Each structure stands twice: as C-alpha cells, then as structure tokens.
Amino acid sequence: MPSTKHKRYIAFLVAVTGSASIGDEAEAVTYAALKPSAEEATASVKATVDAAAHVAVVGKLSTEMAKTIKLKRDEVRVI
After folding, report:
1. Which of 2, 44, 58, 75 is the most exposed place for a label (fewest CB within 10 A)?
2. pTM of the full predicted structure?
C-alpha cells in the first residue's frame, strides 16, 4: 500500500541579487517560497527572475509567520 504521508513544506527565504529587474536603488530582493526543499525553492525563484541573477537561500520563515502572511503551498512571493 502506498504511503499517504504528506510532504512537509517549509517557508524558505531566498535572496536575489544582480538582477536587472531589481533596479539601481535596491541591492537585493527577498522572496518567500513554500516548498518541500531548499533546492525546489531556489529553482522556483530562478524561474521568475533574470538568468544572470544570483539566487541563494538565506533562511526560513516560521510556520506561524507563513500562516500570518497567508503563504500557500508552492507559492513564491516577494516580501
């Protein structure tokens, strides 16, 4: 019988630097991504920004904070 256990989703903070879409005045933009792994969070953010941008996971949001900002599964949002 297949496992019915759900994947655990974690709210990752992903910083983007060196992107033309950020603008001259800003040094970095931070995204929140609710994904099962850091690799998936990074890949999702890379898909939404310039190819030349540097993307890195810089932390995590607590479950309580993710609920407060109403972050949904598989969502990527600028914060």
Report:
1. 2
2. 0.81
